[in-house]
């Protein structure tokens, strides 16, 4: 019998779960939460019990005996900066996410739900490749603004999963390779993987715009807008995340609709689409310098990577750097389950979450 693993990935309006037996998917389910349902909760943490019960109900409805589980893995929430890989969920982590959250975010519930169910079963629960994975080198942290230090927020879970998958598919060790992974979704982040570490990233506010985010923008002009008295603080934040990027230009977040607009000779759509590809290529080229040109492969992943038109045009711009490989999709539940599986098989070790050491290591206030 193989290892049975429950993966839990809470989002703002859904909780996605999957049960795996080794690498095989047993079943998966996206549990949707209506706006009316969520409005009754004052904050995200208050949704914990409701979401946990719905997860357990889905397992029951699929005739799955939770006592058969060997481990549970939840989407890593927004913690103080952590290293890549697995962390054992413990009371210290739970306290941070429940009572002292850095940011109220649905992903914080992944660890809380996993931990609560695991206690009843007396098995381990983990997070894997948290949103807060930060392995930047010291030189990569320095900015020309002394009051601010660069930190790393990226699509670490899918980025590392696709890098590990690519290495395995090519019968190589991820820790022996230099890779650039571009996650192309509602937000776009690009990561440089050097010998098994994400040493630098182009985050969603440092590089290309995306379907709903502004990407890198001229700071001076933004400061002028902030003090123009035309916009509130909330409105300016929405211009950066939610109303920026493609939706700001074309009133859609769907790349397929943009491509249809181009087919109908919409010149503005053609320009914005070309600019998106141009900026993604720039971000990949930027990280190629971090790896000093020693790039074994470039991986394009995320939902937008399903577009053959976009990936072809983008590949033409960057293929001189390294071979380009398409591994489309989000793949988050699979990434979580496979990470836990490697722990169970002894192929990787998990870390203990000790906040004092993290805070000292990363100088987080």
UniProtKB/TrEMBL annotation:
**Top class in the EC scheme:** transferase
On whether Lipoprotein is a keyword of this UniProt record, the answer is no
The UniProt entry, under InterPro entries, shows: Aliphatic_acid_kin_short-chain, Aliphatic_acid_kinase_CS, ATPase_NBD, Butyrate_kin
Q: Name one GO molecular function term.
A: kinase activity
Q: Which CDD domains match?
A: ASKHA_NBD_BK
Secretion signal span: none
- Where does this one sit in the cell? Cytoplasm
Q: Which reaction does it catalyse?
A: butanoate + ATP = butanoyl phosphate + ADP
EC number assigned by the record: 2.7.2.7
Q: Which family does it belong to?
A: Belongs to the acetokinase family.
The protein's name is Probable butyrate kinase
Q: Which organism is it from?
A: Paraclostridium tenue
Lineage of the source organism? Bacteria, Bacillati, Bacillota, Clostridia, Peptostreptococcales
């Amino acid at each position: 019998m193989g290892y049975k693993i429950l993966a839990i990935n809470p989002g703002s309006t859904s909780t996605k779960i999957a049960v795996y037996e080794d690498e095989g998917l047993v079943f998966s389910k996206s549990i949707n939460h209506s706006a009316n349902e969520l409005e009754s909760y004052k904050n995200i943490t208050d949704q914990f019990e409701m979401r946990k019960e719905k997860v357990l109900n889905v397992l029951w409805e699929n005739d799955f005996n939770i006592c058969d589980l060997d481990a549970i893995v939840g989407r890593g929430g927004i913690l103080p900066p952590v290293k890549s890989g697995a962390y054992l969920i413990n009371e210290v982590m739970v306290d941070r996410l429940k009572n002292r959250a850095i940011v109220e975010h649905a992903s914080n519930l992944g660890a809380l739900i996993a931990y609560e169910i695991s206690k009843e079963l007396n098995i381990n629960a983990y997070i894997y490749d948290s949103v807060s994975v930060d392995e930047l080198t010291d030189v990569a942290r320095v900015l020309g603004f002394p009051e601010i230090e660069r930190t790393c927020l990226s699509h670490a879970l899918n980025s590392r999963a696709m890098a590990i998958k690519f290495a395995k598919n090519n019968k190589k060790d991820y820790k022996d390779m230099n890779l650039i992974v571009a996650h192309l979704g509602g937000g776009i982040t690009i990561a440089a993987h050097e010998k098994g570490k994400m040493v630098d990233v182009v985050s969603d506010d440092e590089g290309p715009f995306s379907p709903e985010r502004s990407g890198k923008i001229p700071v001076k002009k933004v400061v002028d807008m902030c003090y123009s008295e035309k916009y509130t603080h909330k409105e300016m934040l929405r211009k950066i995340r939610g109303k920026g990027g493609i939706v700001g230009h074309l009133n859609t977040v769907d790349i397929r609709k943009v491509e249809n607009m181009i087919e109908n000779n919409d010149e503005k759509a053609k320009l914005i689409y070309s600019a998106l590809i141009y900026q993604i290529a720039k971000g990949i080229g930027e990280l190629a310098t971090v790896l000093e040109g020693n790039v074994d492969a470039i991986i394009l992943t995320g939902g937008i990577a399903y577009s053959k038109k976009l990936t072809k045009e983008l590949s033409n711009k960057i293929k001189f750097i390294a071979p380009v490989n398409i591994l489309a999709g989000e793949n988050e539940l699979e990434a979580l389950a496979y990470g836990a599986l490697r722990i169970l098989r002894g192929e990787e070790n998990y870390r203990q979450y000790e906040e004092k050491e993290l805070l000292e290591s990363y100088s987080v206030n």
